[in-house]
Amino acid sequence: MLILSVESSCDETAVAVTENGRRVLADAIDSQVALHAVYGGVVPELASRRHAEIIAPLAERALSDAGVTRADIDAVAVTAAPGLIGALLVGVNFAKSAALALGVPLIPVHHIRGHIAANYIAHPELEPPFVALAVSGGNTLLAEVRGYTDIRVLGSTRDDAAGECFDKSARVLGLPYPGGAQLEKLAQDGDPDKYPLPRAHVAGNPLDMSFSGLKTAVVNIVHGAEQRGEEIDRASLAAAVCRAVCDTLVPRAIEALEATGLDTLAVGGGVAANAHLRAALEKACEKKGAKLYIAPLSLCGDNAAMIGCQGYYEYLAGVRADLSLNAYATMDVDALRF
Known about the structure:
This protein is of the alpha/beta class.
């Protein structure tokens, strides 16, 4: 089964062609990093306009790269939630038009389910059940993946996502956009013990997380130093941020394995590309005796291949949408309402 899939939830436009949920024939991506860099972050209106400009030619490129024609496509999958609403609407409307023109089913996909599914592409042996850690700029959660479309949230952030904390910490440190990757590089030469930073705990919900206090602490350290005319050790503060995020995510991931009785952890999302987090997870899972699957760097960021992969399993589960399909800025990963 060939699926044409569309992803436009933030600042990457992507169109892919996948086969039977595991094989990627083409994954064409247009990055908007240069467009938004001058503003220090994503400008939603500009993102939506770029999606609208590039999505149709990108789909043609994906078909060409895959060596297939429009007539070969069996279904169209699209990210319908969560994300920037204007950006999502571009992808959803294009996907509806494509499905109508091709006379094939339309499959709505949750973006975070896509990040989890990226591991199916990279690791063909991975099958549910397992615990998933999804970490990105807009979402951070732990989930029990009981089946390809049967997902139960175990814990999530109460405020900022881990990626948002990285990006805003990077901004206050004067690092260019995209900040998370720049923060990781800077941290390599720093002393993570030089600046004490908070680790939040949510009373009564040990698997829930909070990153707003960490972000605020970084801002206060930088601004306080500026007011006193002191110089910040930027590398060490960056290293301290990376360690604090790892200290928040990794123990909870291991605790989620213990709570579910499972021995497999799969990790996806943009923050999964962070070398500090990958190393900490590898060490913790080795100590626990658990199997660890992490999406490769090429599949950590937003891409349409992961949407096509999850779309295949949603299709098998009977998920379909008609031309009334809308986009949603927020939606729980375990309570779809398409």
